[in-house]
Amino acid sequence: MPDLVQEQISEKASKQDNVAPKGHPNLVLPNDEWPRLAPKFSLIASLGLAVAMFFVFDLALGSVKIPIGDVVNILWHNEHENIAWQKIIEYIRLPKGFTAILAGAALSVGGLQMQTLFRNPLAGPSVLGITAGASLGVAIVMLASGVATNAFAIKQLGISGSWLIVLASTMGSALVLLIILGISMQIKDNIVLLIVGIMVGNVTISLISVWQYFSSPEEIQDYLIWTFGSLGGVIEDQLLLLSIVVISGLFLSMIASKSLNVMLLGENYAKSMGLSTSYLRITVILATSLLAGSVTGFCGPIGFIGIAVPHLTRSLLNTSDHRFLIPSSALMGALLMLICDIIAQLPGSQTTLPINAVTALVGSPIVIWVIMKNRNLKASFS
Length: 382
Prior knowledge:
Structural class: mainly alpha
Mean pLDDT: 80
Strand content: under 5%
Order of helices and strands: HHHHHHHHHHHHHHHH
Radius of gyration: 22 Å
Number of strands: 0
Low-confidence stretches: 1-32, 155-161
CATH class: Mainly Alpha
Largest sheet: none
Helix content: over 70%
């Protein structure tokens, strides 16, 4: 009788979102499945075209409006009669646009993995305290009054100072990552691990609050400005490093995509199929830490993209198959971040809004719309 029940569950799994049947954890699609999946490939291609289109819009709009034709001409020929426009695009808007794409993709995929691993629709890439750890590292540097690494000294260092902030953020997130990985090897329950991660994040936030209490108003102001998030502070060398780290994190995520599909059926079922849940947990935590930690280090903490985009992607694709959700979430996250960056620039104005505020303003209505449309988010995790 148990074997019969297991076979029925396996059959249901094989029909729902192409999860492999019993004995075949490596998903293999039969030939008659591909026509049904064609719309999903079309949607992914459409998202890619939309990202390219809004990337050009992001380069054209800002305090100085540059015609789209001239933007394309500068990108294609790498020269223009208007030297000022060329310099603006090459040294300011191009790095910012690429940073928006990388940050949106990284946070979205990180949030998707956390929601699947913990089967929690409210989980995000910062749920394990990685972002809080990065913030703690920056706080230690920026609020270290009376020594050579205070905010004034960082400003005097210029480019070197920005690398100092990145290094401090990386060390903070790495410290929390090591703690979480050590705990994950001792704790087998994902829910308990989630609670521990939240508590670790709360501890780091409390330490930052205590440090702020004893800091001067000028130092607190500099730190708060960093917490607003910014896509415009990433220089060329930093962009290369950010690209390498984000692509590595996305690669790890794609490797884990089939295993994440199996995890949707429950941890016990995954173990019965021979899946090493401990190995998967470590892989997902490491990938999410690379994605969320790198973005926080270079751009500051950026919220809501990692929570909103996975829900929006599931709603559009109408699937829980991570082989499609991961690339689609990356593209959707990049698209949404580009849109947020365009809004934050207030085209035609000299004012730029904090990207963190804009992502929350855009992301919150999206989550509410998805909830009202689907009415049952739990179905996406079962």
